[in-house]
Design goal:
Blueprint (H helix, E strand, L loop, with lengths): L18 H11 L5 E2 L16 H6 L1 H4 L9 H13 L10 E5 H13 L5 E6 L3 H9 L3 E8 L5 E2 L1 H7 L4 E7 L11 H14 L2 E5 L24 E6 L11 E7 L6 H13 L5 H12 L13 H14 L4 E2 L8 E2 L2 E2 L1 H4 L4 H12 L1 E2 L1 E2 L11 E4 L4 H17 L4
Parallel strand pairs: 1-13, 3-4, 3-6, 6-7, 7-8
Antiparallel strand pairs: 2-9, 4-5, 8-9, 10-12, 11-15, 14-15
Length: 403
Amino acid sequence: MEIKKSSKLNNVRYDIRGPVTDLAYQMEQEGTPVVKLNTGNPAAFGFKPPDYSSILENELQLTAAYSSSKGLTEAREAIAAYESSKGIPNIKIDNVFTGNGVSELISISLNALLNDNDEILIPTPDYPLWTAAARLAGGKVVHYLCDESASWFPDMDDIKRKITPRTKAIVVISPNNPTGAVYPKEILEGICNLARQHNLLIFSDEIYDRMLMDDAKHIAISSLAPDLPVITMNGLSKSHQLCGFRCGWMVISGDLSNAGNYIEGINVLASMRLCANVNAQAIIPAALKDPHFVRNSLLPGGRLYEQREQAYVGLNSIPGISVVKSSAGLYLFPKLDNEQLNIHDDEKFVLDFLREKHVLLTHGGSYNWDKPDHFRLVYLPEKEVLADVIERLRDFLSNYRQS
């Protein structure tokens, strides 16, 4: 008898590490070097994380044991202090949870909330783990539009049209992955007002809140909503270049008078995985003493800033490509002019580019964007590598057409 995957996975995708990445791995195994621009993994591109070796050595006895399921007290106190500094009111340490990255906490919080066919509003384009985790939890994902012509800000009218009696929550990703948009106060206030009107739980993914460029200012949506239940997600993967530590957290804030049963569900799921990595938890207090570890890299003359400029200018110089400049994060989300380029399958486009030019990108469909006209590029490589990638893409598109 054939052993099949669970039917729960029928609509679950995570293409950032999907078929295109599988092909890149196969090519590497066969001896073909591949430039990997599919994941935001700073250490893989030579970015140096802080040195916490002395903390880990001195705390070996502590980190060798399980922590509480919510996390080390010292870590949660540091998290509460950091999130409070963003204007989030009345954070109680009992409502702070550490996790093996934000990814794990997304899964826990959605599984604790969603019954079969409960609806949840998630942006498009999105960080695809939100959509995958919501579907795995049994929820029905309803994607609301972020408008490229309006700096990739959420389309408030589209959100209003898509709220139904079955809508339980709305996900906000600001700073956004993959677009790099940082939402202004009026957009966030509008989302809060809709949440008030329709009794929605707000999930706020703020993992890039310390990765700001130019004059971008991040506002924690929970700071605008002391009367609403809000779950704020964050961590050290990007700001401290510690992806492999899997060091994330979530803070439940606002009016939780009707959320006790839901929080009980989160507690059950957090307890089932015993605890998050305790080594990662142990460094949180030291890391959050310098929350803006990468600030210099994000200023003019800094590595990330200059690489973004290199990629932005270069991509916009390629006929058939345009891109909105990102204000935060590690990514650009360029648009393909398909009237000019005649691309009708974005996954095929990135597969063909990988085969011919040995560069790994991710297609727009990976981010639940429903038109085959975008891709995401990671601008973590040095400027010389980015310049070479852009020339490879220019040459590829000069004669690439899909039948």
